[in-house]
Predict the structure.
Amino acid sequence: MFFILSKVLYFLLYPISWILILWVWRWRSRTAATRKRLLISMIVLGIVFSNPFLYRSFVMSWQPVPKSLPDTAHYSAGIVLGGLSYYDKKDSGFFSLAADRFIQTANLYHRGIINKVLITGGTGNLMQREPPEAIFLKQEFIRNGVNEKDIILESRSRNTYENAIFSKRVLDSLKLQPPFVLVTSAMHMPRSVAVFKKAGINFISYPCDYTVIDESFDIDNYIIHDISLLKNWSWVIKDVVGFVAYRLTGKA
């Protein structure tokens, strides 16, 4: 029920959805004063959520700081969370913008820092029609030179909570020595850390796929409004709301 509800209500996390709802409300309103207030609200939302400075400031405060591991570090396994690829209508897999999770996990393996790769990811699609994401990722890791015997699949999970619960069962069954290395996007890491700790997994976090980095000053990143940020904010809000929801429901 939690999974289904989260999918059904997901559209409400888009700032553009809020603006659309206000527009419909304004269109249906019969009083000039109400229409004026709703128009002002729409403009304010558009200005706030398209402002690069506000977006960068919030994301920088939410993302954990980058972490590096020396070549002398050694762990029995790395856990890479799904959500970095998708399938087309013909069930052909493709990497998404979060493919850095794959790159960094492969790098850790080839550097000898992790012995095995645990891929956790089924399908987050509500209709559950496409193959598990872990299947595609396994094929890509093998193509990248990761030995098939060093790849562990967890292909049932549909969200972060199930990533943690099912990964815990797999790790316990294999009796691998903790701590493990948890690899996921920096934006997604706060929620993942809370959930995996709650599940009783001993790990160190290895954030990657940074949405915003501490780069040199560029006036475009602070002043010029960017309408595309209306969509980018949805990913931020999704993880913040997900973090709070998991806390409130005892999952983190």
